[in-house]
């Protein structure tokens, strides 16, 4: 995911694991699976982030910082799913169903994106709405 505006080129920092045996993601809170408990947070985009489909990709705007991010179709789909509020396990499960990719590749690439989003302050964690 590319970025324009202040802070371009900064290195991402972190999130944590979901108990699925997959490696933790620095900066993302620990989350549970489909049968989540109330104490297990979901990952969401912060309320200051808006998403727009643009051509073959997506644009994210952080209204709090005026930073603009561009995302390819795959990263954009991950961001769309995050906008619904999912646990890390739910996100990974949905992506494995949608994309033809092996699990280690999916985990590595998703975790990299989550680290970037977390480092930019675009993610929040909270209680499930359901």
Oligomer: single chain
What summary fits the major beta sheet? 4 strands, antiparallel
The spatial strand order of the largest sheet comes to: 1-5-4-3
Q: What is the terminal separation in angstroms?
A: 30 Å
H/E series, N to C? Answer: EEEEEHHHE
Which range best describes the helical content: under 10%, 10-25%, 25-40%, 40-55%, 55-70% or over 70%?
Answer: 25-40%
Strand-pairing-aware structural class:
alpha+beta
Please tally the β strands and state the result.
6
Number of helices: 3
* Average pLDDT: 77
Q: What value does the Rg take, in angstroms?
A: 14 Å
Uncertain stretches of 5 or more adjacent residues = 3-23, 29-39
Shape: globular
The fraction of residues assigned to DSSP E strands is 15-25%
Kindly give the count of domains.
1
Description:
The protein has three helices and six strands; from the N terminus they run E-E-E-E-E-H-H-H-E. It is α+β, with helices and mostly antiparallel strands and 130 residues long. Strand 4 (57-62) and strand 5 form a beta hairpin. It has helices at 73-83, 88-98, 103-119, and strands spanning 2-4, 42-45, 49-54, 57-62, 67-71, 123-126. The protein has a four-stranded antiparallel β-sheet with strand order 1-5-4-3. The protein has one domain (2-120).
